[in-house]
Design brief:
Elements (H helix, E strand, L loop, with lengths): L4 E5 L4 E6 L11 H14 L7 E6 L4 E3 L4 H6 L3 H19 L5 E5 L2 E3 L1 H8 L2 E5 L5 E3 L13 H9 L1 H8 L4 E3 H7 L4 E3 L4 H10 L12 H8 L2 H19 L4 H16 L1 H16 L2 H16 L14 E4 L2 H15 L3 E4 L3 H20 L5 H8 L2 E4 L10 E4 L5 H14 L5 E4 L6 H4 L9 E6 L8 E6 L5 H13 L3 E6 L6 H17 L4 H11 L5 H8 L1 H14 L29 E4 L2 E5 L2 H6 L12 H18 L5 H12 L8 H8 L1 H14 L8 H9 L8
Helix pairs in contact: 1-3, 3-12, 4-5, 5-6, 5-11, 9-10, 10-11, 11-12, 13-26, 14-15, 20-25, 22-23, 25-29
Length: 706
């Protein structure tokens, strides 16, 4: 039939349409695929030998991954964007109008346009494959489900459940899809297509029936007043969560409402108009930029596949060690040895791992037997015996160079030279850590961010003698743990903590000048950061913040300065931040309650209420300045990985596209001029670097780069 779609019709009038894009790991709706599908649907509409048609994918673990993001990224004309949306709507409506029932047989990931054609099908069936996800993630790209997703999903599962998926860009499990009524049936993965064929044959000549959604759904959605309440609450909740910075969820909300209140045609029209405006806007372009960076980070790169890690171990227990071990047991389902010299630390690690599994249990992401099985994979020990069998050891002990050097010297002596030795250090040099060890090509940094279960970034740090095989193996291991690796060269603070130090230092100088804690943190929250810099110091731990600050101050004595009261932040044993319940802020049940008023007296400061709100960019610009130096030093391979690390590592606002992309949009010459003014008015430490000036002369961080 074509290059991408293949049709087979059996003697029993059951037809199968296979979607299989040559040369791709995933099926996407490229321009070529859409045009070919249009021709296919036109032919199908005239056939009289088909009783039921099954749509299947030949990609293992993947149904359809949606539209071609590159096409969306290239569109700059609103009318062109609307026209593309209307083409897709018309195509899926033609699919929906075929003169026989259609079955979308989803046995793998199904998102975006894949979910929308499944919604346009008469029936949607899913397999019980554990990793299967089905959803509409468009708002995460700054757009909305515009090929009928906002219009059809509420009709299928009700407005409440549909808004929960659409407004959050959520993907759900197959069994959740069946529970919600999104899927008409769920079958075992083993023999899935045999079950699908039986299901489809039984639908030939029958009219589809949809199950009712119950009395509660009728009260909330079956009358104008109930619908008004649902949409009013959804709007308030969305604005609270997005703070008005992301227009796509509100546009999607309006499209859903138009479709329910005024009919499908009005819903499609609202989708198309909103898509044209959103797809050509700066926020969508920035979010798509971040998405492409994340997709690039998921790839192993060229060459042979790296050696697979099968026997991991964690050296150093406690919360961090327990978090890493829990990840290994959960995501990889491998036995993982956790070694420490203190039984109390092992107990802490096990308690922390159990608490993370318990959280999954409460959210119904795991079942009790599975929880017990995975907890049994974590093997605590006080003995060195058994480590020799490991092919990978990640060290998560105290941040002390001399201690780490002794540990790595001992590990290198006792373990086979093929065993990868990784350090979870946040600031110490990988070269220095491995200085006393043998076979140093297998020593690498693997910096997890805290809390391990929530933070998606892992910095993979290559020392000067670390082999490429080692870094690739660790990056692949990080991906299997569900993390996004960014490759970084060894250097003080690596990448994220190095940039973060300049941001944090400037926040402290603003505090020193008389600005209140709340004003400083509020300025950054209003700018788009997930938390303020002083609240972040509490989150990291004031003791850790001070220690890392000293290490980086020694590394960059010509430009990184802290107020003299830095050590007083962590001077009291009980004032460590969130983990002790008291820091710059007070905490109750691990939740921030208020700024501790005693902090000003402890630091010897007097807040000045007459000061204007601090300028958020004064804290951002030192990071831009240092980012240019990081690129000049070769710490990271280009502005793209740097932007990705900042978004995933400190929550740099995704809608701004990353630090370098934001700086390019703001204009590097303007940033250089502002830093020059700050250097004269505030301190020479803020003077623009030679690297930044050169970047500005070249035209920006991304000049000539993808």
């Amino acid at each position: 039939m074509g290059r991408i779609f293949h049709l087979e019709v059996g003697a029993d009038h059951l037809a199968t349409l296979t979607f299989d894009t040559p040369g791709r790991k995933a099926n996407i709706f490229s321009r070529e695929a859409l045009e070919e599908l249009q021709a296919v649907v036109g032919e199908l509409a005239s056939r009289d030998d088909i009783g039921c048609l099954v749509l299947v994918s030949m990609k293992p673990g993947m149904f359809i991954a949606g539209a071609d993001v590159d096409l969306i990224a290239e569109i700059t004309d609103r009318a062109e964007a609307e026209a593309g949306v209307r083409f897709g709507q018309a195509l899926f409506s033609a699919w929906e109008a075929l003169p026989f029932p259609t079955v979308a047989a989803v046995s793998g990931t199904c998102v975006g346009g894949g979910t929308e054609i499944a919604l346009a099908s008469t029936y949607l069936v899913v397999s019980d494959r554990p990793e299967l996800r089905i959803g509409l993630p468009e708002v995460r790209l700054g757009i909305l489900p515009a090929w009928g997703g906002c219009t059809r999903l509420p009709r299928r599962i009700g407005a409440l459940a549909a808004l929960d998926i659409i407004l959050a860009g959520k993907s759900i499990l197959g069994r959740q899809a069946a529970t919600l009524g999104l899927a008409d049936a769920i079958f075992p993965e083993a023999g899935f297509f045999h079950h699908v064929r039986d299901f489809s044959r039984s639908r030939i000549g029958r009219k589809p029936r949809r199950r009712g959604r119950g009395f509660k759904a009728f009260l909330l959605e079956g009358n104008p007043l109930g619908r008004w309440f649902v949409f009013d609450q959804a709007r308030k909740r969305t604005l609270t969560q997005t703070k008005g910075r992301y227009p796509a969820p509100i546009a999607a909300l309006d499209a859903v409402r138009a479709g329910l209140d005024r009919g499908k045609r009005a819903g499609f029209e609202a989708e198309a108009r909103a898509a044209g405006e959103l797809a050509t806007g700066a926020i969508a372009k920035n979010l798509i930029h971040v998405f492409r960076l994340m997709e690039s980070a998921k790839k192993d790169g060229d060459g042979d596949a790296p050696a697979e890690i099968r026997r991991p171990a964690v050296l150093g227990a406690g919360t961090m060690g327990g978090g890493i071990a829990q990840l290994v047991a959960d995501k990889m389902e491998l036995p993982v040895r956790v070694k420490d010299v203190q039984s109390e630390a092992l107990a802490t690690a096990l308690r922390h791992a159990k608490s993370l599994f318990d959280k999954q249990l409460r959210r119904r992401r795991i079942r009790s037997p599975e929880l017990r099985r995975k907890m049994n994979l974590i093997q605590p020990t006080l003995e060195d015996a058994g480590l020799e069998a490991s092919d990978f050891v990640v060290e998560a002990i105290v941040e002390n160079l001399a201690v780490k050097q002794r540990v790595f010297e001992d590990l290198a002596r006792r373990l086979p030279q093929s065993t990868i030795l990784a350090s979870n250090t946040s600031s110490l040099s990988i070269d220095d850590i491995g200085k006393l060890a043998t076979h140093r090509q297998r020593i690498v940094g693997m910096h997890f961010f805290n809390p391990v279960d929530k933070m998606p970034l892992v910095e993979v740090i290559a020392g000067t003698v670390t082999s490429k095989e080692t870094t690739r193996a660790v990056a692949t291991f990080a991906r299997r743990l569900g993390k996004t690796p960014v490759m970084v060269r060894d250097g003080p603070g690596f990448l994220v903590n190095r940039l973060l130090a300049f941001y944090s230092a400037e926040a402290m100088w603003l505090l020193d000048e008389g600005h209140r804690v709340e004003a400083i943190d509020r300025a950054m929250l209003d700018w788009g950061m997930p938390m303020g810099p002083l609240r972040l110091a509490d989150e990291v731990g004031l003791d850790v913040s001070a220690k890392v600050g000293h290490i980086l101050r020694a590394a960059f004595p010509d430009r990184l300065f802290f107020p003299e009261w830095l050590d007083r932040l962590a001077g009291e044993p009980k004032r460590l931040g969130l983990k002790s319940g008291l820091g710059v802020y007070r905490y109750q049940d691990r939740r921030e309650s208020s700024v501790d008023p005693a902090i000003y007296a402890i630091l010897g400061l007097r807040p000045d209420s007459s000061l204007a709100a601090p300028d958020a960019e004064r804290m951002i610009l030192p990071m831009v300045n240092e980012a240019a130096r990081c690129l000049e030093d070769g710490i990271v391979d280009g502005p793209g990985p740097l932007d990705l690390a900042m978004v995933l590592g400190i929550g740099f606002p995704p809608f701004r596209g990353g630090l370098c992309r934001w700086a390019d949009a703001a204009g590097l010459p303007a940033i250089v001029a502002k830093l020059e003014a700050l250097a004269g008015d505030v301190s020479p430490r803020l003077a623009p670097s030679a690297a930044l000036r050169q970047m500005a002369e070249r035209g920006g961080f991304y000049r000539g780069r993808p």
